[in-house]
């Protein structure tokens, strides 16, 4: 998710600090993002690899490609996501927000974890995994994550479905952090709520976009 929005800004700052950045994205925006970063920082090390987090096949292909490059892995930012989209199923027959926002990141993290453990052990530098979650995790279905009804179109609510996917991000981070600590691995796992930011993530919520625009206008006016 490093091709636009806060993911692009994260990639830019990492490149500025001298990190070798791998932008994983499903579309051609990633190449444009790399170009923009290189224009500002000509010596930056930025590569682009294809990844569609809604597809478990794509996640596995990306992990195989990355691991075959024999690169160290110090930091993994799980930033990509979709929000408030109409009901649809992924190619793996899973509700799209849960598939993209949680399952894709969950599998990706697991497939790259051995690399990060090896890197942390060989370099002595703490590995870091960051899941981009949201305060929206507080607004989910009354019973929490509906594992047995993920694909039930009749009860689907776009905002609560988003909330449950963000709750899953947090539970993933907490449990993985516990296991890594128990194992003695030199890796931290955290979740972060980035706040309300006008990015492409808002494309399915016109009302929310307008609200942010109004708040921003009033803030700067005052």
UniProtKB/TrEMBL annotation:
InterPro entries with a match to the protein in the record: NAD(P)-bd_dom_sf, SDR_fam, TIC32
The name this protein goes by in its record: Short-chain dehydrogenase TIC 32, chloroplastic
Assigned protein family: Belongs to the short-chain dehydrogenases/reductases (SDR) family.
Pfam families from the UniProt entry: adh_short (PF00106)
